[in-house]
Amino acid sequence: xxxxxxxxxxxxxAHDAADPGRHETAVALVSRLExxxxxxxxxxxxxxxxxxxxxxxxxxxxxxxxxxADFGFWMIQRPTHGDLLHACxxxxxxxLSWWDALILASALSIGANVLWSEDFQHGRQIDSLVIRNPFxx
Length: 137
Hints:
Distance between the termini: 27 Å
Radius of gyration: 14 Å
Shape: globular
Helix content: 40-55%
CATH class: Alpha Beta
Number of helices: 6
Strand order of the largest sheet: 3-2-1-4-6-5
Oligomer: single chain
Number of domains: 1
Number of strands: 6
CATH superfamily: 5'-nuclease
């Protein structure tokens, strides 16, 4: 089965209509992943979404919690000590921010084939993982 990991920015755009083009693209991606059961994310992504939703999108705590609850049936990666060490290595070797390195380590840890994000180089391949920016033409 193909596993596609979603970064926080995709979830934020899926719940924020301020940029209609990105919103529609993100909603379509999240919907497809839900339909096929191939969506994955990490506890980090859910934490970051909650923070962005309540601080930037104007969601109440209850509304943000409801969105997080909706993702309960997705594959959720919970970083282990080994994942943290792998993120340290990725940060050092690839020169990523700590949080991006942890996203990448999480996607690799669960064997994702695709990482959907606008924060990485579109088309870059790391091991068997391909990074895709859904907003890239």
